[in-house]
Specification:
The protein is 40% helix and 13% strand. The protein is an alpha/beta fold. Strand 11 and strand 12 form a beta hairpin. Helix 2 packs parallel to helix 4, helix 8 packs parallel to helix 9 and helix 12 crosses helix 14.
Length: 498
């Protein structure tokens, strides 16, 4: 009997251990997807052989069942049309088409002509100069371009409102002007896959001989991402770099702007060098494709994957109260459940809520993009106190400004005293939070210094961020980076929907 009792206990314990193991296995997180955005800056309109390089890359990817994004320069599209390269156009049409500036490296490039313009004039000028190329790409490829990326490092913040007005929802490129820890983010109302970390490390060396090193790096990225909930790799190439000995646009190096009849055609690389380049690319693509959690996505698919959850969301009174409570003197974005909010969106929502009827179950939405200020704000060195009657009038004035201009003002006026919008937001959020808990309006309001914390994600002006051989020697623009910091009001993380 004792043996049977002992045996019964052993079986019971083993059964419990098995159940525990099963439960632990069931609780193990499922590896998440690693998305690969593969894109090509399709720009060389001088070297005819670059047409065939683009076709070869597009055809290979189609045969692999992979769609990429080809960002096409306006003049490149027109050149393909003039050369009657309908075969190249047809090959690229099987993929997503983006836009990569009208003439790319002919001067003035976007950063050059924008460097002397303010926010409003700069947006209008970007449309004047760049919209014709966008329209030609759409006409020739019979696709609405899904994204934009600047030529070289010729980045400018005034491009964003223009692109949004054209219906472009994605900024796809690489540079160091603005970024969010290498992750996709929203800035200027657009999804940005920009300033990432992994893709640039998978690029070839000058001789295209580092394929094994790139495979090893990708495996490391893959393992890290799948362990940590998934991720995105943004990887780019230029069709022309597979075949040329020199980039085509060195015709325009250091500010040169020769007429068309003086453009040089640089020679091709030797045949074995060209084949090594294509082999590098094909091996890397096949290798990435072999991983079970890898999914190649195009620009439009990325836009859907990282759709802005705040758009169309109806914010309840309890949500608005929590949003107001999270505002601190270092004003930043907020990450909440299925959506994120930029500082500009937080300010818009809190302003709307402040003006709603007391006790009403407010259902506030964000019907439009709210951009940052046009000019730097006045500094506030020490707290000031204003009567509630004045503060309340200023809230109404702020609401009217945002509704009219779709923009955060350069300053919020407390009667004759201008204060920075972040300063006013902090004070407004404190009052809104107290009101949510049954508090009454104060007799006086203290407005204290605050700062916009998201400015830290925008680079300072430096030679490194403008390092492009096409720029005139010594080109840089503190003005553009100042405008970029003002638009840090619009910055927030992008959350995948899966």
């Amino acid at each position: 009997m004792k043996r049977l009792a002992v045996l019964s206990c052993v079986i019971c314990v083993m059964t419990q251990l098995v159940l525990i193991c099963v439960n632990l296995i069931g609780q193990r997180p499922t590896p998440r997807k690693v998305y690969v955005v593969l894109w090509f800056d399709t720009e060389d309109y001088i070297l005819p052989e670059s047409d065939d390089a683009a076709k070869r890359l597009a055809t290979f990817l189609t045969e692999q069942g992979i769609q990429a994004t080809f960002k096409v320069v306006g003049e490149k599209a027109r050149t393909l049309e003039r050369r009657h390269r309908t075969d190249v156009i047809a090959a690229l049409q099987k993929h997503a088409i983006g836009y990569h500036a009208n003439t790319h490296s002919q001067h003035p490039t976007p950063a050059e002509y924008e460097s002397l313009l303010n926010w409003e004039t700069g947006a209008a000028e970007f449309t004047r100069r760049e919209r014709p190329g966008y329209d030609d790409v759409q006409r020739i490829f019979k696709q609405k371009p899904c994204c934009y990326g600047q030529p070289g490092n010729s980045w400018a913040p005034q491009a964003f409102p223009s692109l949004a007005s054209w219906g472009v929802g994605l900024y796809l490129d690489e540079a160091a002007h603005v970024g969010l820890n290498g992750q996709p983010f929203y800035y200027g109302g657009l999804l940005n896959i920009f300033n990432t970390k992994e893709g640039p490390q998978l690029r070839p060396n000058d001789e295209w001989t580092n394929i094994e090193e790139s495979k090893t790096k990708f495996r490391q990225f893959y393992e890290q991402m799948t362990r940590n909930g998934g991720g995105l790799v943004s990887l780019y190439f230029h069709p022309c770099e597979f075949i040329h000995s020199q980039f085509w646009d060195m015709n325009f190096a250091r500010g040169a702007n020769p007429p068309r009849d003086q453009w040089r055609t640089y020679p091709l690389r030797p045949p074995d060098s060209r084949e090594r380049a294509f082999s590098y690319f094909e091996q890397l693509v096949r290798y990435m494709k072999s991983f079970p959690q890898v999914q190649f996505i195009t620009g439009p698919q990325a836009t859907r994957l990282y759709a802005d959850g705040a758009r169309g969301h109806r914010f309840s009174a309890s949500e608005l109260a929590e949003i107001a409570r999270q505002v601190e003197w270092e004003v930043s974005f907020q990450v909440r459940g299925t959506y994120t909010l930029s500082p500009a969106e937080v300010m818009t929502l809190v302003t709307e809520w402040m003006l709603s009827q007391p006790g009403a179950d407010a259902k506030v939405t964000l019907p439009f993009t709210v951009y940052g200020p046009s000019l730097p704000s006045p500094p506030l060195s020490e707290p000031i106190e204003v009567p509630w009657s004045q503060f309340e009038r200023s809230v109404h004035d702020l609401h009217s400004f945002i509704q009219r201009h779709h923009q955060i003002p350069n300053a919020v006026w407390l009667g004759s005293k201008p204060v920075a919008p972040e300063v006013f937001l902090v004070a407004m959020a404190k009052i809104a939070s107290k009101s949510a808990n049954g508090g009454v309006a104060p007799e006086n309001v203290t407005v204290a210094p605050a700062r916009l914390a998201t400015e830290k994600y925008v680079a300072l002006d430096s030679p490194e961020i403008w390092s492009w051989p096409i720029f005139p020697t010594g080109f840089h623009s503190e003005h553009l980076m100042e405008l970029a910091r003002l638009q840090a009001w619009t910055l927030k993380p992008a959350k995948p929907s899966e």
